[in-house]
Amino acid sequence: MSDTPFGFGLPPEEPEDGDEGKKKDPTGGGQGSGGPANPFGFGPGAGGDNPFAAMFGSMNPNDLGAAFQQLGQMLSYEGGPVNWDMAKQIARQTVSQGTTDGSKDASVGPAERTSVDEALRLADLWLDGVTSMPSGSVTTVAWSRAEWVEASLPAWQQLVDPVAERVGLAMEDVLPEEMQAMAGPLIGMMRSMGGAMFGQQIGQAVGVLAGEVVGSTDIGLPLAPAGKAALLPLNVERFGKDLSVPQDEVRLYLALREAAHQRLFAHVPWLRSHLFGAVEAYARGIKVDTSKLEDVVGQFDPSQPEQLQDALQQGMFQPEDTPEQKASLARLETALALVEGWVDAVVHEAAKSRLTSADALRETMRRRRASGGPAEQTFATLIGLQLRPRRLRDASRLWASLTDARGVDGRDGLWEHPDMLPTAQDLDDPDGFVHHEQLDFSELDKMLGEAAEGGTRKPSAEDRGEDGAGDDGPRTDGKDDDGR
């Protein structure tokens, strides 16, 4: 066990840009284990069954005071369902410890920033010829892993909070009503501990994911501020390490994917809320495994908060088998597939004649998205949802067929409204969707305009049922008496 009890205390110092060379590790732990250390010190090898047992070892009063201060902050947390301050701290700690292959975070140098900027700008030029959507990148940035954590946490909060809220409510519901009044302090403590444990788990998952992602849109959701096209040079290099592909081609291909995502999210204003709304709708239908939670609550010991941590790690979520929940899941999976399929098709069209390794890079990225990494699996356990496009290949084929049949403008025009997009059934029968008769919305607009005009214009003689003759005789110019 480290000298800092429970793993609490100040995290390893590091600069905002993630410069590994300036970091200090006061604990000395976690570096040689090949993976992120348990930041709380709970679990096997951390003091036995009682995490407080090793507390009174060789520690000075300052260490003891710092431990109780951190524990007090955790128990006194009164924010939302997830302690995001703790999540951020744990994520940065995880990043500082490096990845399982020994890759350490480092600050981004001027040469790397220039390479990323040039790749993203060239990617935008190539995309101009294969999509009608203009560039969505206001700025280009090259991030360290620590900078990616800082930039993406607000999006993770929007994604995870709805599910964590359900867990918090379930914690209260499992207690009999007559006990809830008596157990007020215990409920408050459990809520604080639950928020802290969720924060710890989410933070560790985000920290691990920071070692895997190559940009801001890897999971199909916009995790960075709008208009910022980002690449992580260290992870780009790691991505192409064993591919036998020139590093410049790897960087440019990944820049194409990042720039394509940016165009889509910038010029389809409803898309972000559509995706996050689908996640929230799915979360509302998630049922917490109350039997497992009841066991935890019934045996809850404030001195053993790892019980809640273990329950979270094992997963407590069971999607309800209802038509509404199935519809929410299908909506989300289809939306993710359509986004990733469009990006895949557009990027391939831009890259196939310019990059000799375009096909190999495309297949590598498809397999990567289909399998997911350890961080994505952690999120699946925590929120009961896998953010992977299960039907990426089907969606990509459909978008490519649409390009052949309707052209670039006809394909991209489908993003004007969610009701115009292909459905899960259309992915089963892409030819049927591609070749079915398109609605002529311009004709509909014309009809609606004429109807609105007809409700306000002055009635003509024909409208009044007259023969068109007035005091001056019939008109010979084909118009009514009002000149129409």
Task: Describe the model.
This protein is mainly alpha-helical. Helix content is 55%, strand content 3%. The chain has helices spanning 61-75, 84-97, 110-127, 145-173, 177-182, 184-210, 233-239, 247-267, 271-284, 290-298, 306-314, 323-351, 358-371, 374-383, 392-412, 424-428, 430-435, 441-454, and strands spanning 139-142, 228-231, 286-288, 317-319. The strands form two sheets. It has a two-stranded parallel ribbon with strand order 1-2. Strands 3-4 form a two-stranded antiparallel ribbon. It is globular and about 65 Å long.
Derived structural class:
mainly alpha
State the low-pLDDT regions, or none: 1-59, 460-484
Helix content, binned percent: 55-70%
Radius of gyration: 29 Å
What does the overall shape look like? globular
Beta-strand segment tally: 4
Strand content: under 5%
- Please provide the ordered H/E string of secondary-structure elements: HHHEHHHEHHHEHHEHHHHHHH
What strand order characterises the main sheet?
A: 1-2
Number of helices: 18
Largest sheet: 2 strands, parallel
Essential attributes:
18 helices; 4 strands; mainly alpha; globular; two-stranded parallel sheet; 484 residues
